[in-house]
């Protein structure tokens, strides 16, 4: 199976190795509940650890349909090659290695949202997370002993102090499904607990001045149309902050943030400040169940609002839609709205 590492994209085929078997998952990309970005990021590598950390027995039952062959012992994928010692000036994050950090601080943002600050042994290391990328977080449940892994997008990293911030919406037992395992575990963890990180992951990166790469392909946009629901706001904040930090970056951003009510709007003060201080930013909140005194947009984000704020999609307009929503919010609803709007 010398070809494993050569199958890392839609064009070449998306192959992964799991438990010494090789699978062609190209046809499964559009069906993956977590989106295709994570699968594309794992293409051409041994994804055994991440697969069993992130998936249930039901997912394992799907594998035989995509089986190709056994992985030859003489042909190990790139992430199985022995690692060289990390250089002193290398970034802290490693895509192929779990790195330990300490749960340093927890701040209550709302009744069900926390700001967690994680601290790493920095020694002047950059954190190493490009704008638009995210990380895997791994934490052991002290009751069940289960190792839980979930993807998160940090909203800030401070290299001078070796700290990184995560905004996490807590799904309590009464409404927790699979997405609540990590959130309740980290919420109950004591300060000083060890947490593990790995990354960067994701197929999108913003490199500045309207320039991006998507699955390695360069593209350009004059305006981002950002659509988020719930904690899906965190990747948008990451990009907004990057643009705001560069006075020469003129990329425009329209953010449509969908939530149930005003209390569910995450990082509102920060978003309002970014909009106020950057003339090319516009932020619209659309609570579906606002209070009587709410003066802004209301109702579920739909095609009508998109047409009112953006107009009809124009070929060659150099606009890019970014969409991020949580699994608890009906993960395909906003995607369907965007697709219908783009089809006119």
UniProtKB/TrEMBL annotation:
Annotated Gene Ontology cellular component terms: endoplasmic reticulum; membrane
Chief location of this protein within or outside the cell: membrane
This protein's UniProt keywords: FAD, Flavoprotein, Membrane, Oxidoreductase
Molecular-function GO term, any one: oxidoreductase activity
The keyword tRNA processing is annotated on this UniProt entry: no
SUPFAM superfamilies: Cytochrome b5-like heme/steroid binding domain, Ferredoxin reductase-like, C-terminal NADP-linked domain, Riboflavin synthase domain-like
Domain Cytochrome b5 heme-binding: 1-72
Compartments, as annotated in UniProt: Membrane
Record Pfam families: Cyt-b5 (PF00173), FAD_binding_6 (PF00970), NAD_binding_1 (PF00175)
Positions with a binding annotation for FAD: 150-152, 167, 169, 181-182, 234
Cofactor: FAD
Location of the FAD-binding FR-type domain: 96-207
Similarity comment: family membership: Belongs to the flavoprotein pyridine nucleotide cytochrome reductase family.
PANTHER family assigned to the protein according to its UniProt record, in alphabetical order: NADH-CYTOCHROME B5 REDUCTASE (PTHR19370), NITRATE REDUCTASE [NADPH] (PTHR19370:SF211)
Protein name, per record: Nitrate reductase
